[in-house]
Amino acid sequence: MPLICFASPKGGVGKTTLAANVADALQRRGRRVLAIDFDAQNALRLHFALPITDTSGFMSQLPQRPDWRTLVRRTSSGVFLLPHGATDVRGALNLAQALDREPELLAAPMREILADPNLVVIADTPPGASHALSILAPMSNMVCAVLLADATSAALVPEISNGSFLGGGTIANLMAGRLRVILNGIEPKSRLSRAVSEMLTRHLGPRLLGAICREEMMAEAVAAQRFLLDVAPGSQAALDLQETTTAIEAALGAAPELFAARGAM
């Protein structure tokens, strides 16, 4: 506790990269952080330098009711990680059907995880509406929707504003007050990127947590399986990341002592 879900109405917006780097930034500030991958692409592990051959994980085994504690990795960054685990189309379909029949398969272990008051949980969820997000959203303290500063994101503003990209009905209503937005990949030299950023800033107001400029160093950090704050701590993107992390903490109203404990999971 708290639970921060990273979500997006569409793929390809840098959601997983941002979730990993925010988790790393929080850990550097003395927080005890658990990052959990709910996206079947199983990509979050790569940001934490897990071997490509390490394909086991939590969500891929969920229908078998695994003990999540046995699957937690302590990464070299200090962040704890629950990988999704490798799966195929059949496995993904079986998981979706299992969660549809029995949401408690996921809700029960998440309650156990969130019972630890000294833990910040970062959840990387699949793009768009999903079974995982529909279960996690009501349990979360914040849903961070990641958008690019482009024409597609501008067109998605109504779905972002009313939370409908999270799913219909009750979920959207529940999350209306917890939804925040992060703009990613802003290109200062692009007239369109600047225009979209300014429009979203005016429209979203205090729901806009931060904006991250586009820099090649971010891609280089990902390729090297390292974090931006290691590779280019003085870059504009790193400064933007730090400001966004500060805004997340402020929006949660987190007391410093809540996250003081460190150590084993």
TrEMBL record:
Organism lineage string: Bacteria, Pseudomonadati, Pseudomonadota, Alphaproteobacteria, Acetobacterales
Organism, scientific name: Roseococcus pinisoli
Residues spanning the signal sequence: none
UniProt xrefs under SUPFAM superfamilies: P-loop containing nucleoside triphosphate hydrolases
Protein name (record): AAA family ATPase
